[in-house]
Amino acid sequence: MSILVGEDTRLAVAGLTGREGSYHAMNNRRYGTNVVAGITPGKGGQDVEGVPVFNTFRQAVAATDANTAMIFVPPRFAADSILEAEDAGVATIVAITEGIPAHDELIVFNVLKRNPGVRLVGPNCPGVLSPGKANVGIIPAAFFKPGNVGVVSRSGTLTYQIGNELAQSGFGNSTIVGIGGDPVPGSSFVDIIALFQADPETELIVMSGEIGGSAEEEAAQYIAEQVSKPVVAYIAGLTAPPGKTMGHAGAIVSGSSGGGQAKIDALEAVGVRVGRTPTQVAQIAVEILRG
Amino acid sequence: MDLLEYKGKQVLARYDVAQLPGREATTVDAAVAAAEDIGFPLVIKAQVKIGGRGKAGGIKIANTLDEVREHATNILGMDIRGHIVHELWLQLASEIVSEYYAAVVFDRSAKAPLVMLSTQGGMEIEQVAAEHPEALAMLHVDPLVGFHPFHARRLAYEAGVDADVVVPVGDMLATLYEVFVGEDATLVEINPLVITPEREVAALDAKVTLDDNAMFRHPDNATLDDSSAADPQEAMAKKRGLTYVKLDGDIGIFGNGAGLVMSTLDVVAHAGGAPANFLDAGGGAKAEAIAASVEVILGNPNVKAVLFNVFGGITRCDEVARGIIEAYEILKPTVPFVVRLDGTNDVEARKLLADADLPHVYPEATMDGAAARVVALAREGVVAA
């Protein structure tokens, strides 16, 4: 098994006819992902390298039984596209788009919250990769191989860094999930860690967090109560000064909240081992996996 | 985008939020002229985006034009915890019966707007929350339902506002929520919200933060940005589409992806160094963008060495190597570069750098090793020819 994406994934891509959308969707297809449809209003009836394009998500789902959506449309249209995918009954929505207005994300989150059958990953995320099975998004799959480490991260490149160090030690991944760096992510650490806990293939969970918000603290509490698998963590931005946004809209230490040390303390207090550098994280994970 | 107090007040004025008469000024003479229009007594307030202005001497009362001249002279140019005062706000001083606090905040954790009201205004709200939690009424609003009159009444009665102002205070909360949604704000805070002897409710201060990602919906709000106050390197980086934040240290940092760059800052600090900046070149950066990044980094005169830490996913390491070589030839840097490239096309990238054989460019294989190297070089003060 794996989580969120795999051999059963039937992917519909919003923005398939765009330059970025087609480039990454075709990359995903070459990896083995079953790309069944594209959605671009006004371009229904066309195709992109044999993948049929539809005007609406409803048409795409009716014709292809798509169960997963990848959102690759510009920020001002992205929230609408996510809501359209949900309305059409798509179960897993992966939103790559960066720069969606915070209030739009708020509306999306609160609409999707009412539907227990849907899961949104992102926005502003690198996507989801289950090595050897399916890749939905922009994660460079060549650096990863199948295995039993589940990775969940707010950052893309940092995930590649940690995953690559694990791979060099001979360990692969069940699934790698980028939840994104925005203030209102569709999925939190808690949501993804719960899926990894239930996934028989995942033996160890690596979570890579960063300053800002309280998602890491919430994860610590959840791990204490619900997670029996070992978790290794990393927190980026420990030395970032307060009041400065570090690239991700969500990465800011404001007042007394969002600081890196508080997150590390919360995680270590519940028995999660926290590496001080990405290399240390990989070393700790390898140590636990080798028993 | 954080707005200066008076620009926040301009936004509130569009929604007819009651305020006291006031004007902004950037010179002492303009302050005196503004005072002649406003009348006395008046308050002169430093316009900086940081709290504690009063304690720092940035807020003064004036009763005469001479006092306006004196205070304006002292406050303009003042350094309030690293923020230089370039602008003043002069406002008629009112008689105040009560000081309340009202705010609408984007609560990330609850994924909902949070409306807050307190009768203990005029001080830091964190302090009120800690010392008098009963005096702070809070309510999360379902963004799909919106803010309704009963929400306002509930907050007003829970906070214990004076009975005769329950309705106007409630109306004020509804208006602030309207501003919050209508302007794509992530913060609208009034502290203090005052009750005058005439029992009128007015906003004496304003703290407004707007969402940069939503600016396309509000082209008029672009004029509220005071980029003149921004750091020159930050302005240059913004123009070139780079994410750059200036820091206090002497080691320039180049990386791709916000998380990896943040991590790079930490690893450099862990190795005993102090980063001079955060710079995220983003995904898929081409050689020209990389050369531009190097120019921005080297524009900071404090930089003694530069660390390039890249894990190529969409970004191709060979493009980064070409960018470094290009920048080197154009800018002829006088500080050493440490380069760690992993990921897409890394072998080709390392060969490009080896063939170019640039003086004082040091390749490193690991992130931790690269951090240790750049810290050592910055300490030695090695200067390239």
TrEMBL record, chain B:
Its EC number is 6.2.1.5. It catalyses: GTP + succinate + CoA = succinyl-CoA + GDP + phosphate; succinate + ATP + CoA = succinyl-CoA + ADP + phosphate. This is Succinate--CoA ligase [ADP-forming] subunit beta. GO terms for biological process: succinyl-CoA metabolic process; tricarboxylic acid cycle. The lineage of its organism: Bacteria, Bacillati, Actinomycetota, Thermoleophilia, Solirubrobacterales. Pathway: Carbohydrate metabolism; tricarboxylic acid cycle; succinate from succinyl-CoA (ligase route): step 1/1. The gene is sucC. ATP binds at K45, G52, R53, G54, S94, E99. Mg(2+) binds at N191, D205.
